[in-house]
Amino acid sequence: MNYYALIELFGGFFVAWCIIGILVCISIVCRMAQNYGRSVGEWLLIAIFFSPIVAIIGLAALGKTLEKRFEEWEWMETRKRMARKEMDENNDYMNVSEAKLIIR
């Protein structure tokens, strides 16, 4: 058995595994930057030049921008208004509870 060929095979798998791991971490950095309202290009460069782990920790430490928080708050308020409007239009659940009280 040729041990050198076996070592080269496992070495190739290890290098491929490392490259795939780095690419996955970089994609996580890009997704986090987009979700936090940060510049994807800048955080991609930080991930490439320093480390994806450093970029992930940095993004987590900084958190979301004020604009992104406001955007999410505005979206939630819109959803609440829509739900309230739908509840006002469909009061079937209240009629059912009132009907049970009348029957008893």
Write the layout of secondary structure elements.
Layout: H1 3-35, H2 40-49, H3 52-62, H4 66-89, H5 92-103
In short:
The protein is mainly α. The chain has five helices and no strands. It has helices spanning 3-35, 40-49, 52-62, 66-89, 92-103.
Describe the structure.
It is a single chain. By secondary structure, this protein is mostly helical. It has two domains: 1-63, no CATH class; 65-104. Helix content is 87%, strand content 0%. The protein is built from five helices and no strands. Helix 1 packs antiparallel against helix 2.
What's the helical proportion of residues?
A: over 70%
How do the helices and strands follow one another from N- to C-terminus?
HHHHH
Terminal Cα separation, in Å? 86 Å
Strand content range: under 5%
Descriptive key words:
104 residues; mainly alpha; 5 helices; 2 domains
